[in-house]
Amino acid sequence: xxxxxxxxxxxxxxxxSALLTxxxxxxxxxxxxxxxxxxxxxxxxxxxxxxxxxxxxxxxEASPDVVFHLAANANPRSCESxxxxxxxxxVEGTVNVFSAMPNxxxxxxxxxxxxxxxxxxxxxxxxxxxxxxxxxxRTKLAAEEWIVQSSLPxxxxxxxxxxxxxxxxxxxxxxxxxxxxxGKESIRVGNxxxxxxxxxxxxxxxxxxxxxxCGNPGEVYNLCSGIGRSMHEILATVIGTRPIQVVxxxxxxRPLETQILVGxxxxxxxxxxxxxxxxADTLREMSGA
Length: 289
What we know:
With about 290 residues, the protein is α/β, with parallel strands linked by helices. It folds into two domains: about 1-160 and about 200-225, NAD(P)-binding Rossmann-like Domain (Rossmann fold, 3-Layer(aba) Sandwich); about 170-195 and about 230-255 and about 280-285, UDP-galactose 4-epimerase, domain 1, CATH 3.90.25. The chain has helices at about 10-20, 50-60, 75-80, 85-100, 135-150, 170-180, 200-215, 230-240, 265-270, 280-285, and strands spanning about 1-5, 25-30, 45, 65-70, 105-110, 155-160, 160-165, 185-190, 195, 200, 220-225, 230, 245-250, 260. It has a seven-stranded parallel sheet, sandwiched between helices. The chain has a three-stranded mixed sheet with strand order 12-9-14. The longest helix is centred in the N-terminal third of the chain and has 17 residues, at about 85-100.
């Protein structure tokens, strides 16, 4: 089986490529730069998903049986500052990739929990209304809407928050763990009252593979733990008993913050997905505890 992974140099893309090669797939990875870690046997191609002709040529060369589309501008601040590029990458890039997908192939589109938006107080299942706010969420939802209209054999995976080894310090939990691991005396934080649903990235990418093999094209699946934790609770787990000062940094407070974002993974679990990592174990691994 041949698999194509777009955005392979990203955090989840690197873990997915490693999993696919372990499972016996022949993997081609697209990104504008080579991945820092992942699958050493993977074939890497420098492809910009914003370029339709590049996608067509590289897709013909790869001739995949399954296409995992992870390439995106996933930084909300960057999307807000340059919405035109967010549209080109997140919407037009999705169109370019899946329009070039060969006949007989199946696609897995990696979307986001942020398409659900705010106003949800209970765990969110796939039937919940989408209320995307902010450029990032709106572009991801627009990409999903194109997929539905296209009628192509594509499964949509709405991933909730995930973390794990090798995640960059631009993300709050990874930054906290990195500072603990390095023995720093303080940690800067944003809104600790927000409630989030965190999973281990290795469980999430296993979900992408499970959906490619067992999911129903045309449908959407949440990938999440189903457990809501405040960021304060997660920070307390990371710090433990260490004497670390916590400093609130106003620059880390997001203007479009959704207070509660917790998913219901029942549909993915009915398809056979089973998470294997607890968040506490993941945080201990990341912080070097």
